[in-house]
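Quick one, T. Sequence first:
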Amino acid sequence: MREAHPIERAVGMEHYVSDAAGVGGRLRDRPADFRVRELEAFDTEPVDADTGAYPHLVFRAELRNWDTNDFASRLSDRLGISRERVSWAGTKDKRAVTTQLFSVKGIDADDLPEVDGATIEVVGRAGRPILFGDLAGNAFEIVVRDAERAENAAAVVADLAAFAGGADPTADDGPTAAADLPDGETTVGVPNYFGQQRFGSRRPVTHEVGLAIARGDWEGAVLAYVGNPHEREPAATREARAYAEETRDWAGALDRLPGALGYERSICHRLVENGADEPADFREALEALPSNLQSLFVNAAQSYVFNRILSERLERGLPFDRPVEGDVVCFRDADAPSDLAVPDPDRTQRVTAKRLSTVERHCERGRAFVTAPLVGTETDLGDGEPGDIAREVLDDVGLEPGDFDLPGAFDSDGTCRAILLRTELGVDRDGDDLTFSFSLPKGSYATVVLREFRKGDPDA
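Structure tokens:
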């Protein structure tokens, strides 16, 4: 294993599992270099269906250089409706070309406006909104430009193929000797980390906000979001954040924060209104944010803990492709497309010594997946060494499952998540440019695959 980039270690991703040197290069040189297409899993009725029974209009949008939340805000503004009436299945990267489904409650197809950078195709109507997770996965086609060490890609593919099957990719006679890219696709595996964008690619702080919320430190959560300047931000932004952090002068911070920081400004505005005298005032300011952003803070805290658990499992040399006693496994989603292995976190089983060999066979055949906890009030932390790891990480961050019993959108029961991300990967080389094609189940990150190849600053 190799040590990860510092900004990745800050969000719990401590290692690259491939010991081969990285290819370098630039990601997202232009939006068309990062293409994402949802693998849809949402049924609709015809567009002329009864609007009383099917009040939600469903459309497919190809977005170019649009953050999903920003597009939803722009669309709702153009329609003159609350943003809460716009729903989607998964948040996508901004600097990309993405194709995904949206639903809007209470409008007709003719009401949809034109939005710059978006191509909209009406799909039909539905009786309920699209909810987060209403997709099977995503298909990616991603170009890494000017990879100065493109020849290293073959060795990385070989390392990741070994990790997918449980072999040691760093063995002396291991796959890093590979010299040529394989023809066609190769089954590869990586730890199923939450990617950098979960925490903020330029300023990774959302997990810090969520951790403060889970500890009941509402003022600390506000300061982690509004204050907390980061070296990657423009000087004026850093100065405004530092002012807010040092003075708690929310009116002055509101004057100094750039207009682009709409959520931070919204928090400051609410604090000016309510006086910011009590912990409840800071909670109220956070609750003024969109409900999905409130949930995102807590989800990011859970994701950080999950990443830490995976890194510790790697440190201890525990397998990812098969269970050990005390693990919790989940089973394959029977409703997912046959060519995409999607874990179902609602169907789980604790691995005992008696069941170990049986569950190992299920994992070998792609019917079951080893998991780690996304900690919430009802999370099964597991037994044995896997359970010890989860409890030690939680103790280190000062949390326990009951801390996620939170008000409103901040509350979380918790769940589990597969720890190994397998995919059929195709890599094509054109000089110093590399094109990667693969599909992932919902909730997994393309950047987690690509980081093993680039091995550098994820924001470069």
